[in-house]
Amino acid sequence: MIQKQTFEFLAELADNNNREWFMDNKQRHDAARENVIDFAGNLITEMHKIDPAVSIELDPKKCVLRIYRDVRFSKNKTPYKNNFGISLPTTGVKAGGAEYYFQVQPGKSFIAGGYWMPEAAHLKAIRQEIDYNGHDLKTIVDDAGFVKLFGKFRDQDKLKTLPRDYSADNENIELLKLKSFIAWHQLKDKDLMKADLVEKITAICSKIYPLNVFLRNAIV
């Protein structure tokens, strides 16, 4: 489970996002990060049972993203993220491609899966798979249980114009316009502090699993 102290640290960090405060509270950060790393280890073990492509060899420390922000190209110059993220790739031990992602953030925690903003070659391959086997993807994302958990898959960020090589009368055009292929479900803070959190997340991810299989098959 995620400890109450982890949420308290993140909430205070959001209100004091500066180096002086962070250094004064470095021990709290380290304790909160260890809490998330411990949870990541348990999550990897159980997720491997749901999706064998989540390697049991994943290092929990490497799966927990650094809290330091890259501000080089951002107008927002605050130095720290106000969340902890756990990335579980399905391409061995390297990120990139279809994955599962868990974020701990007071009031904004969520579990997600799929492929966010695929690189050009992968996006082309995914669109080709949709063009050839769009029915398979529709079966996944239009399932009543999927929609109840994740909402309408087609409503995420998409092109305003037609993608290259595809016409407006293509039966899968709304799926072909998508820039990302993500399913995400918001979680309540109180649920993250319960002992059954791993079971809850893996149950949700079992519904994301067919989507990730479809995406992986497209880019092999």
Automatic annotation (TrEMBL):
InterPro entries: CHP02453 (IPR012808), UCP028451 (IPR015996). Transmembrane segments: none annotated. This is DUF2461 domain-containing protein. It comes from Mucilaginibacter calamicampi.
